Amino acid sequence: MSVVLLVFGVAVVAAAPLVAAHVLLTGVRVPRRLRADGRLPSLIAARAGQIGGRIGSLTLDVVGPLNEVALALGPKDIAEAVNRMFAAEREQILDRVARAHLGVIWRSLPGAAKVQFEDHLAKTVPRAIDRAMDEIIAAIDDLIDVPAMQTRFFGARPAELSRMIETVAMPAFRALAVLLPVLAAVPMLLPVCVPGLQGVLGGVLLGLGVSLLGVAWLFTPPPARWRPLPARLFTPLLPERRMITAFYADTVADEAFRLDVVIDELVRGRAALGTRAIVERRVSAIFARLPGRLLLSLVIPPRAMQGMIQSATAELLDLLPRAAREPELTARCADRLRRRVVDCFEAMDELEFLVMQRNVLRTELPLLHVFVGGIFLAVGLLAAL
């Protein structure tokens, strides 16, 4: 009976990492009478927003500070794209803004006067956009809360986050499925062979110790003197480091910090008020230097002038998301950001790299310890019967 319990306990310990992986990463099948889709969502999917915010914070610690990440996107490139759009639509933008707030006054102006206004905008708006982009980059730490942005981004995409973490973490769980039963074989003798409460409690403590030791092995680089030993004796995360780095770079550049995602956060998200204030200051300076400004102030009510400033600001802000969706610009920005992420990750030493991977799931990994400790408890209770 003791031998059967020992074999059973070790076999279940071997299955524990794979069970934990399913609960964490892929979800669990349940009868359809309990859930219509027949599956409980994975713990990662259920906590996607929180984990996404954690990933954003950890990644920023590696590739930041934020203003340098923003510079990697290429603000001058973005400003050039916005300026090209403005140049193509300058006449229509001016006409929309002026008609909305000046009405008859604008329609009655001679064509030469309108051309003069358009020429003024052609000279001043590109400089204003360049300076506004510089101001936005300088203030981006105050404008964008990266963890909050990533919390919203991944919270709306739980399946994508689960697939991302599964790609990185599944090799580690498979390695634990081999290591944990080896570590657990001797400690499992305690709950099997020592009857009573002492064996049960001692077994639970040893089980937790086995699980903690396995996870510590997973996230600890091998000492230099052990390097000649076979690579399979060490954490599988280091041989996969290049793949994991590329995965982070693609996720940051093509998903989480993609140009249109950042611009949407600046223009339409929580940073919108700050971004608008920066652009509006530049637009106000343009209107303050309009040709014939003193004469215009006698004809145009202050409320109409302020309305034109606000409308012109809205027009320029509307160009930003449209420019951010230009395929060529998006690709160039993503390539620059991808190179920065790869360079920063490759500059990390092994321990820093492994600690970061551990911190991604720092509040979810204890689930594995609970499973292993529960197995030792169950074996001890069976042995006591």
Automatic annotation (TrEMBL):
Keyword flag Membrane: yes
Protein name in UniProt: DUF445 domain-containing protein
Keywords: Membrane, Transmembrane, Transmembrane helix
Membrane-traversing stretches: 6-25, 172-190, 196-219, 365-384
Upper classification of the organism: Bacteria, Pseudomonadati, Pseudomonadota, Alphaproteobacteria, Rhodospirillales
